[in-house]
Amino acid sequence: GMDRKDPRKGLKRAVFRAAVALFIALSVVAPARADATDQARALLDAGDVAAAVRLLEPLAAAGDASAEYLLGKVHLDGLGMPQDFTSAAAWIAKAAEKGDARAQNALGRLHAEGLGVAQDANTAVLWMRRAAEQGDPTHQYDLAILLDDARLGVEDKAQAARWFEAAAGQGLPAAKTSLGLAYQQGSGVQKDLARAAALFSEAAEAGDARAQNNLGLMLARGEGLPQDYERAVGLFEKALAQGQTQAFYNLGVMYENGFGVAQDEARAMELYAMAGRKGGTTATDIVALA
Q: Most buried by CB count within 10 Å: which residue of 72, 89, 110, 124?
């Protein structure tokens, strides 16, 4: 029996060795490819688009999803080359088909806007949902925004709220603000002002300007929490410092009425002008932000 076993053992060993050699070769190739895409990304960040494209083109042509996405992005942004939506969409679609979440999100956005592809909101939702399901909160937020938008014919407030919730659960401040609005308005969820105030508060702490304005609004009106003009003024000022236009107007109302600040009509008028609005007179004129 010995004679028959030995050759087989030898063969197995040879096959195993070849497999190991192949595995080593593959594991050397993959990092090299990843290094090249990382290098390309670094070159793009540094503004050396030509060098990045030289690296990306052969990788993208060989079917590397990350390279396809990055090359698509270069065409999309028109960085160092003419903006070309058709080429951008073609490269991004290749990467999206391979499961690259950034590409799926980008392809969805292109379909939503009809750039380089036919405008088709349903296709946009399909791709953006694939990206969102991979778990990046910014992709979940983008999908929620799309589903929250009445203009595209794919509006689904309950689904939008669910995706805002998913992104907010991962700590994305903008998603907390949008989820807060959903609870404030009872849009896709049961109206809950306390929950809205809590979400705005978290997002405002994190520096989200919309949340600062919206929480200021609830405090100025005593909506969902006790009225607190001074705290409202502080929040409007924070939002205003970030250029939040609604906050210019709201702070103007506070100055015009002397709510939480010394009354100052001139300052009020200045703020109204900055907001590009004529002005209000009472706290009821304080405007909400969607």
A: 72
Nearest to 95 by CA among 41, 139, 136, 131: 131
Find where tokens 């009445």 sit.
Answer: 150
Residues near 46 by Cβ (< 8 Å), separated by ≥ 6?
none
Yes or no: say if 283 and 220 are a contact pair by the CB < 8 Å rule. Answer: yes
- With beta carbons less than 8 A apart as the criterion, state whether 53 and 74 touch: yes
Number of CB atoms found within 10 A of residue 66's CB: 22
Task: Outline where 206-264 has alpha helix (H).
Answer: 209-221, 229-241, 245-257
CA angle at 263 for the pair 261 and 266, rounded to the nearest 5°: 120
Mind listing the pLDDT tens digit for each residue in 84-97? 999 999 999 999 99
Question: How does pLDDT run across 153-169, given as a tens digit for each residue?
Answer: 999 999 999 999 999 99
Query: Residue 251: which of 278, 235, 209, 200 has the closest Cα?
Result: 235
**How many residues make up the chain in this entry?**
290
Q: What is the pLDDT of residue 241?
A: 96
CA angle 112, 182, 167 (to 5 degrees): 65
Contacts of 122 (CB under 8 A, 6+ apart): 154
Give the mean pLDDT of 237-264. Answer: 95
Distance, CA of 236 to CA of 231 (rounded, Å): 9
Which of 161, 159, 169, 109 lies closest to 137 in space, CA to CA?
Answer: 169
pLDDT at 279 over 90: no
